[in-house]
Write a structure and sequence with these properties.
Length: about 130
């Protein structure tokens, strides 16, 4: 496989076929949004981890069995699954070796990090960011 600039591509599914510039541009926009959603999910899961740690520091004493079935942990688990699927989708899109789609994956990730991770960029992640 080699990187190419083709306008005809099947992306992820047989139904997602592009054959012209407008199809590629629409797909690029969708892939950028997909990359931003991936970064947003990743950041939200980190926020939930920090929130959970703060809550526990305030004196809550739960047993291990109770905390594994806590609402936050169940939500985190479901979000992990969604994030994993999105991550593999983005990887498979990159593996088309279509330069336009590869750039869209990178741009989506970078924009998503810019939009969603700005708060953590100014403080130590191990500390509480208020």
């Amino acid at each position: 496989m080699t990187f190419h600039f083709g306008l005809q591509e099947t992306i992820l599914f047989d139904q997602w076929v592009v054959s012209d510039l407008s199809g590629v541009l629409g797909s690029v926009i969708g892939i950028i949004i997909l990359g931003m959603i991936y970064e947003g999910l990743k950041n939200y899961r980190e926020y939930l981890n920090v929130s959970k740690a703060i809550y526990k520091r305030k004196g809550e004493t739960e047993s291990r069995a109770k905390s594994i079935f806590s609402t936050i942990h169940v939500v985190q688990t479901m979000l992990q699954g969604v994030q994993l699927i999105l991550g593999y989708f983005l990887m498979f899109i990159f593996m088309t070796y279509n330069v336009y789609l590869c750039i869209a994956v990178v741009v989506g990730s970078v924009l998503g990090y810019f939009v969603f991770s700005w708060k953590y960029a100014r403080c130590d992640i191990s500390e509480c960011c208020s």
